[in-house]
Fold this protein.
Amino acid sequence: MKRLRETSWLIVAVPSLAIVVWLFFLPFIRSAVTSFQTEDGAWTFQNYITAYRLYAGDVLYTIFVSGVSLIAVLIIGILVSGFARIYGGGVVEFLFKIPLFVPFVVVGHAMRVFLAPHGLLNSALAQIGLVNLDNPPSIAFSWVGISVALAWKNMALAILLILGAFESVGDTFLEAARNFGAGWFRQVKDVLLPMSLTSIAVAAVLIFTSMLASFSIPMMIGSGKGAQMLMIDVYYRIVYQHDYGVANALGVVSYITAMGAAVYYLRSVTKG
Amino acid sequence: MKRARIVRIILVVLISFIIFGPLSSLVIWSVAEKWYWPHLLPQQVGLFYWGKVFQGRMMQALQVGVLIACVVTVLSLIMTVPLGYVLARFRVPFKAAVLLIFLLPQAFPQLPVFANATVYLYRANLGGKVPGVILIHMVGALVYAVWTMTAVFKSIPASLEEAAINLGASRIRTFWNISLPLAMPGIIASALLIFLYSLDEFTGTLLVGSPFVLTLPVFMYNASQGYELPVASITALLLMVPGIILLLVLERYLKAEYLSSFGRI
């Protein structure tokens, strides 16, 4: 009887659980199962073979773009957070919170008009003679554009998480380092960074997964030609070819990549 | 410390350029009536497109989007306030399993899952309709809400509730008169973020709603792909307004743990 009363709390959980199970958990399972099926429901590996043949390059491209953006975000994030931790955040910290509140689609569109061949950045650089407008470099519509947009959007989150970790390092450690003559950079590199490595690894995994899964930014800024981000392939496969088999196989690849990042993180935490 | 001040000034200028550069091109495009390269600024500036946007389908998309966001926010709060309280206060069976289900959507890419969820919604005759879009928004909103509500109730000292119970109040009465009022600031903050999430949601809306249900982000995407750059830029600016207001008003109250999960969805 007691058992029954204890489980009655689930009544409160049922409505929200029902929605998340119906529209996330079950579709998640479905995508994994149907990736091994033909349209008639027979079991097959054909979807994965097709996915490998057509999209192996795109998988590597996605990991490459996300990796480059992640490294850029981490380097800037650590430097800015280090500066803010030692000298105080103020305006710098506030400015970096702005991208957190700019929707993904808006970031995509803003970067597209900013970085286009005849966009604002090239026009401004042309004024000071850095860019030749007769043959302007196209940053948008290439992997650099996607990388810049992803890095811009995720910078806020990175600084929020890294600065949070830096704040929890006691002042005494920094004072000790200063007493031994450590400058700003040494304090970040030798004190703050080693003491916050776990939190930074968590932030890195979170950000990498979100970049890997990014859809609206490459939708807005991508070129439609050449290599594509993985989520774009999934979307086109479904919308234009109604091919759920191959799309779901690509989906499973994206789950495994996201999981790979998480597992790597867990391993490094348990080892350390 | 003089060097630190110089570094700070350089940093602020550099960061301002990085943050506001892309956003400023939206402002310029929104008032550009005629703009041919290689001119740095538009040849003809005016509010022509602003007038056009406010008469057209944008207003409809705005209304639908706000309606959806309101419903999503209210439903999410009704469902997760009691749940967050239970999860924060009691050791109950199956708690780990329930938390795991609410963790899944955070860990895996959304699009492939939502594409399959769309199939279910169409089977239930909800695809391409407002209720379907509300449901797909609920997935992300609920996951976010459960985690923040649990954090909010955990931050209230249990001793205050125990005092009320010792004085003879029932559990329910304690919840209404003690816990809920104390949790109100946290609940309001996360309600605003849920509203913002729903208003900005793109992936689920495109998959489930398109082409019948248009919200602002999807409208903006269509305008941008159709090279209606002034229209798209005005919509983009409008989409930024609620977020910026929220940032200015709530900056001090928004704790890192609420925001970190928000930045992901």
Notes: The mean pLDDT of chain A is 85. The first helix of chain A runs from residue 2 to 7. Chain A touches chain B through 91 residues (CB under 8 Å). Chain A has one domain: 56-271.
